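Agenda item 2: nicotinamide-adenine-dinucleotide complex prediction
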Amino acid sequence: MIADQSARSLADLLSLSGRAAVVTGGASGIGRAIVGRLAEAGADVVVADLDIERAEATASEIAARSGRRVLASATDVSDTASLAAVADRCVAELGGLHIWINNAGIYPTTGPAIEATDEFIDRMLTVNVRGTFAGAREASRRMQSGGVIVNLVSTTGFRGAVGISGYSTSKHAVIGLTKNLALEFAARDIRVVGVAPGVIDTPGVQAQLAPLAAAGLDVASRMQRTLLGRAGQPDDIARMVTVLASDLAAWVTGEVLVVDAGSLAG
Ligand SMILES: NC(=O)c1ccc[n+]([C@@H]2O[C@H](COP(=O)([O-])OP(=O)(O)OC[C@H]3O[C@@H](n4cnc5c(N)ncnc54)[C@H](O)[C@@H]3O)[C@@H](O)[C@H]2O)c1
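Presented output:
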């Protein structure tokens, strides 16, 4: 049972010292910011990404900055053997597995749903849903003394949007997955939570918006038009992921925290 934490200080509750984490898609964007904050909080981290060169650069930069052990792993979340391998590596080289962040995801534009091909639908669901499900399963099998799994969702997991039906559907599924895994893993002291970002300025989003920018849309000022007056940055998400991964959130599971500067509020 997850213990009452009321006698501990805030700083101690936030500390991830002595914990080992895996961040999928940790080489860039939101994942990279998460790696940085987890290491700053005291965790040792594996950066698990398709792009091994970027993962290595991220790992060495954050290791130098934080003084923590940060490893790079060539990982494809659409390949279950690859997920199992990085989970094993975390246990073998970092002494355990306590935190697993399912961050890797793709968001190619679907276009009209009537034109979506089976190949497109399969790819979207394989990376975003099966990759998250299998990642959580492989992590949970290796969490010997409890742990935390954080799934990156999206505000489009709560409502539909024209032209991104594949992505939005995949994120709806991850919200359902978060609740179901929380129910089953609680008996093993594993919390499962989600974070749903609004639009965040990352390489992935910039690539999506490039055609609009090329067509003359002022993408930068459009992204700044949030309730809180500025565009979302990867660290806005990484801070909340770090809190949820820590014992500050010891009584939170099966829930998704929306971090969107109020875009879903009205
Ligand atoms: N940026 C946003 O506005 C936003 C909003 C809501 C949700 N999200 C979610 O946050 C997560 C990160 O988004 P981002 O914008 O930082 O993405 P990004 O495209 O900028 O970075 C994604 C990283 O994941 C890696 N990756 C892609 N496919 C992979 C695979 N099969 N296996 C392992 N690694 C893989 C990429 O190499 C890259 O380093 C995603 O799950 C995304 O759906 C992002």
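Discussion summary: Strands lie at 20-24, 44-49, 70-74, 99-102, 147-152, 190-197, 256-259.
Owner for follow-up: CH.
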